[in-house]
Amino acid sequence: xxxxxxxxxxxxxxxxxxxxxxxxxxxxxxxxxxxxxxxxxxxxxxxxxxxxxxxxxxxxxxxxxxxxxxxxxxxxxxxxxxxxxxxxxxxxxxxxxxxxxxxxxxxxxxxxxxxxxxxxxxxxxxxxxxxxxxxxxxxxxxxxxxxxxxxxxxxxxxxxxxxxxxxxxxxxxxxxxxxxxxxxxxxxxxxxxxxxxxxxxxxxxxxxxxxxxxxxxxxxxxxxx
Length: 225
What we know:
Elements (H helix, E strand, L loop, with lengths): L11 E5 L4 E5 L2 E3 L1 H19 L28 H4 L10 E3 L5 E3 L8 E6 L4 H16 L6 E6 L4 H11 L12 H5 L11 E5 L5 E6 L4 H12 L1
Parallel strand pairs: 6-7
Antiparallel strand pairs: 1-2, 2-3, 4-5, 6-8, 8-9
């Protein structure tokens, strides 16, 4: 690979007119500086447009567990999860950090929210309190929220749950069996992904990425009916 070497210019002065902004280097004038700034600006705008789907690396959050290899942003296709809409919830059994098991099909008769998440996932951290609030607000209607951690240890989940202090029971999916049953994977869908299941045990909607509170409320009303 060949790298171009650019000599450092002399100190610059900037002149602004109604037509354009130019950079003056000594006696010569060039628009290279302007073009470079414009390119950086466009790249930055593109990055900002994606932040709703990107997971911040654990290096920015020292309190979180290390992120595993792979993608953490939802992929371009959700066919693996959307295929479940209108079908029975997968026959999956999960276990909480204390060893208690829960079968999702055993929750038939209750509206259920299943959320696939991870401790290193920033959008997951942001939306989990929304699910906890929903579970509390609709407890009398039988709403059950099942947060399933994606392939992490019991110790990591316990530590994270103590930190966030949510009144929900987290569940483990150490080998990824539950995630695969729901069509969720880091490269396929990213995290988080949320499933809303009605009282008949039918998957009614799939919400990829950090949920919008208003959209979640609309979909939640459908399964509470």
